[in-house]
């Protein structure tokens, strides 16, 4: 399926990193700026983040608004898609207007720089592929404004509670994060299967077994592996063209 558009905005974290709702006897209440890249939901302090400019502002380095201006003018939640796809092509490249294309190209580059900055400032990351369920908060006597709260239940049993500005914003966050979680779970599973298939084909083409595979990968000459296959879905120009801020991710 089509990859859902990333989402970002301001939320309040109501649980600690261990899932507790209280720390040193006080309720946890931490305002963060949340943003998604690939399957990761990242967050950092609002003062360290660079959200998109408020509507109507021109994208230049000199016009980055203040934190207070951001809070006063920007939407409660928004999605950023610098490369909208239509019929398999980037839509703004089809206009034929050189100035229009140049402006969109500059805006896309500005969004890329903003994404890199936010990732560098990220203070925490939640892998949406490790989330079992994203739901509305269950009614509880200990929680205020339950209709603004959502819960992310991880596979290890940890529950992260996040509070939005209002019920409508909370519902939209739940919808968007659920779509992203489902997509990336299916995407990563498909990528793994694709990698396994390519690997089996290459072993057969090169007439080697698994024991020789690692040696061939490191020491073989180009002429020895020129007939090997590579998946265009796994190995493409995206890392070189910087269309995604995350180049490689792996568990340590």
The global form is globular
Proportion in helices: 25-40%
Distance between the termini: 29 Å
Structural class based on helices, strands and sheet pairing:
alpha+beta
Outline the low-pLDDT stretches.
Answer: none
Topology:
Layout: E1 7-13, E2 22-23, E3 26-27, E4 30-37, E5 40-44, H1 67-73, E6 77-79, E7 85-86, E8 89-90, H2 98-120, E9 124-127, E10 131-136, E11 149-154, E12 159-163, H3 167-206, H4 210-219, H5 222-225, H6 238-241
Antiparallel strand pairs: 1-4, 1-6, 1-12, 2-3, 4-5, 5-9, 7-8, 10-11, 11-12
Name its key features:
alpha+beta, 12 strands, 6 helices, single chain, eight-stranded antiparallel sheet
In short:
The chain has 252 residues and is of the alpha+beta class. It contains six helices and twelve strands.
Write up this protein.
The chain is α+β, with helices and mostly antiparallel strands and 252 residues long. The protein has helices at 67-73, 98-120, 167-206, 210-219, 222-225, 238-241, and strands at 7-13, 22-23, 26-27, 30-37, 40-44, 77-79, 85-86, 89-90, 124-127, 131-136, 149-154, 159-163. The strands form three sheets. Strands 1, 4, 5, 6, 9, 10, 11 and 12 form an eight-stranded antiparallel β-sheet that branches. The longest helix is centred in the last third of the chain and has 40 residues, at 167-206. 16% of the residues are buried.
């Amino acid at each position: 399926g089509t990859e859902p558009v990333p989402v970002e905005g301001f939320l309040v974290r109501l649980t600690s990193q261990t899932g507790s709702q209280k720390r040193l006897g006080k309720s946890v209440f931490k305002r963060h700026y949340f943003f998604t890249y690939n399957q990761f939901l990242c967050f950092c302090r609002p003062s360290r983040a660079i959200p998109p400019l408020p509507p109507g502002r021109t994208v230049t380095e000199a016009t980055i608004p203040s934190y207070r201006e951001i809070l006063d003018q920007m939407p409660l939640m928004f999605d950023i898609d610098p490369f909208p796809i239509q019929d398999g092509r980037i839509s703004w490249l089809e206009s034929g207007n050189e100035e229009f294309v140049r402006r969109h190209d500059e805006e896309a580059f500005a969004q890329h720089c903003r994404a890199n900055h936010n990732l560098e400032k990220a203070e925490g990351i939640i892998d949406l592929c490790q989330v079992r369920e994203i739901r509305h908060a269950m009614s509880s006597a200990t929680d205020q404004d339950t209709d603004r709260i959502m819960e992310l239940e991880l596979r290890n049993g940890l529950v992260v509670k996040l509070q939005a500005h209002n019920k409508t914003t909370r519902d939209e966050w739940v919808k968007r994060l659920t779509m992203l979680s489902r997509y990336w779970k299916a995407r990563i599973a498909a990528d793994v299967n694709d990698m396994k298939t390519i690997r089996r084909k290459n072993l057969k083409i090169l007439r080697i077994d698994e024991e020789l595979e690692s040696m061939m990968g490191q020491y073989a000459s180009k002429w020895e592996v020129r007939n090997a296959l590579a998946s265009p879905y796994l190995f493409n120009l995206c890392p070189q063209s910087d269309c995604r801020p995350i180049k490689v991710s792996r568990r340590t």
